[in-house]
Amino acid sequence: MLSHLLLNPALILGAVAACFLARFITHFLSTHRALRHVPGPRPSSLIWGDEWLLYHSTPGIHYVRWHRQYGKVLRFTSAFGHQVLSITDPKAIKYILGEAIFDFPKPKGVRAWFKATLGEGILWVEGKDAHERQRRLLAPALSQTSVRNLVPIFYETSAKMACQWIKVIDDSHSDEAEIEVTKWAGRFALDTVGRAAFSYDLDCLSGGPHALAESLDGLTNNENKLSSFYMRALFWIFPSILSIGAKGEMIRRSKFELGNISSRMWRDAKVTGDVNGKDLMSMILHAEASSTTQKMNEAEVVAQMTTTISAGYETVSAIIAWTLYELALDVRLQNELREEVTAAGLGDPSYDDLNSNFPLLDAIVREVLRLHPPILENHHEAAETISVPLSEPIEGTSDMHLVIPKGTILEIPVNVIQTDPDVWGSDAEIFRPERWLERKKQGIRNEREIFAFSEGPRSCIGKVFALCEVKALVVTLLRQFSFTCPHEIEPFQSFVIRPRIKGQGPSSLPLLVRKI
């Protein structure tokens, strides 16, 4: 009788579902009880909590409103009553991202996303030893010393994109043409990371169709469909949803294209065998040739490569788009920056020049990162029940510690931190790069000025690389073109925060580009 029951698929599935439901209800009740003293908004939907509200609003706007109302620690409701903590308390953030970072791994849904799209690379891996092993391999290729040697490549890809823009303008038989900037920003980012990290020409800037660029665009650049909402709302609780439907097929296609190109690059690199270069590929080859403990199998190598390509594409393309958008809105600022970069002469500025001799350029890029952070939320999950110190009591209590139950998802809203009027003044929500020049003159420097690349042991190792290539591109374009924006643009949340024409679906930033 027992063996008959065990072999019945329906009974087995029912038992599994019952166990999952019981565990979910137990976690739901215990989390609600443990966090009942933490203030927060009433859920706007019985089923979807606040997910529908967040998805269909300007990115981050409700985080700002909630934190103004409820303080630096609050809770809101995700799908099916799942509780999420939102934290802007500086002492808590320093603890979570610093000494306790490996007690707060990425949520299971986020890790499932990275595994499904990129494999088991540095964005997926958890645990101190495993993470440090991968970081030790990747970090040297993205250090200041390495990036200093890569600056000529940044200018080469910048010049290639400028040539394509000139061709578009010439074909229009005028000195001006409308150019869709987000498309070109993404292809510039892909070609740059391919050349600089792997000495490989992905050939995305030729102007023709490109399978990798199109698959990445399709995956992260069309978030106006109901299927995207359901996936975003549910993958925190049911990570397996990432493999379902049209969106699941797009994820598989994107991973296939990334993996296909990465495998090809890896095979070509092993034939070439350059272990003395300074790019990431050479360092992987050197590690494989010289060490038994650092060796990775091909799947691990490909995962690191796909992760590097995707990270270099997503964040950099968004930063470029928002930088050109802000310059297009302010002709005075654009002209001042053009004067700064042309005063340096006709040669390409060096790494040190880009970081020391262009104060307005630096201020503009910093202000873009402050007001348009590519990643809106920094998500984590409590691996165990843990007490987190606070700099001020939770609203309505005297509690100077927050006990976070095991399994609780928490998020750090970057836009709230970077538009705090107590730090940035009453004009914190206005794009004003001059504030950085004023702060430098006054010697003002906060511990956490820009949070866009996170901080601590798991901060973005590609920060120096990304900022340098953005600056090199801006210098190149401003010497040849002027920009204006004839459309009303709004931000929307895809994988990163992208611009689009207001009311439209995918990312779009058509600028009027004129030769000068």
UniProtKB/TrEMBL annotation:
<keyword id="KW-0812">Transmembrane</keyword>
<feature type="transmembrane region" description="Helical">
    <location>
        <begin position="6"/>
        <end position="26"/>
    </location>
</feature>
<dbReference type="InterPro" id="IPR050121">
    <property type="entry name" value="Cytochrome_P450_monoxygenase"/>
</dbReference>
<dbReference type="Pfam" id="PF00067">
    <property type="entry name" value="p450"/>
</dbReference>
<comment type="similarity">
    <text>Belongs to the cytochrome P450 family.</text>
</comment>
<dbReference type="InterPro" id="IPR002403">
    <property type="entry name" value="Cyt_P450_E_grp-IV"/>
</dbReference>
<dbReference type="InterPro" id="IPR017972">
    <property type="entry name" value="Cyt_P450_CS"/>
</dbReference>
<keyword id="KW-0408">Iron</keyword>
<dbReference type="InterPro" id="IPR036396">
    <property type="entry name" value="Cyt_P450_sf"/>
</dbReference>
<keyword id="KW-0472">Membrane</keyword>
<feature type="binding site" description="axial binding residue">
    <location>
        <position position="460"/>
    </location>
    <ligand>
        <name>heme</name>
    </ligand>
</feature>
<dbReference type="InterPro" id="IPR001128">
    <property type="entry name" value="Cyt_P450"/>
</dbReference>
<dbReference type="GO" id="GO:0016705">
    <property type="term" value="F:oxidoreductase activity, acting on paired donors, with incorporation or reduction of molecular oxygen"/>
</dbReference>
<keyword id="KW-0503">Monooxygenase</keyword>
<keyword id="KW-0479">Metal-binding</keyword>
<protein>
    <submittedName>
        <fullName>Cytochrome P450</fullName>
    </submittedName>
</protein>
<keyword id="KW-0349">Heme</keyword>
<dbReference type="GO" id="GO:0005506">
    <property type="term" value="F:iron ion binding"/>
</dbReference>
<dbReference type="GO" id="GO:0020037">
    <property type="term" value="F:heme binding"/>
</dbReference>
<dbReference type="GO" id="GO:0016020">
    <property type="term" value="C:membrane"/>
</dbReference>
<keyword id="KW-0560">Oxidoreductase</keyword>
<keyword id="KW-1133">Transmembrane helix</keyword>
<dbReference type="GO" id="GO:0004497">
    <property type="term" value="F:monooxygenase activity"/>
</dbReference>
<comment type="pathway">
    <text>Secondary metabolite biosynthesis; terpenoid biosynthesis.</text>
</comment>
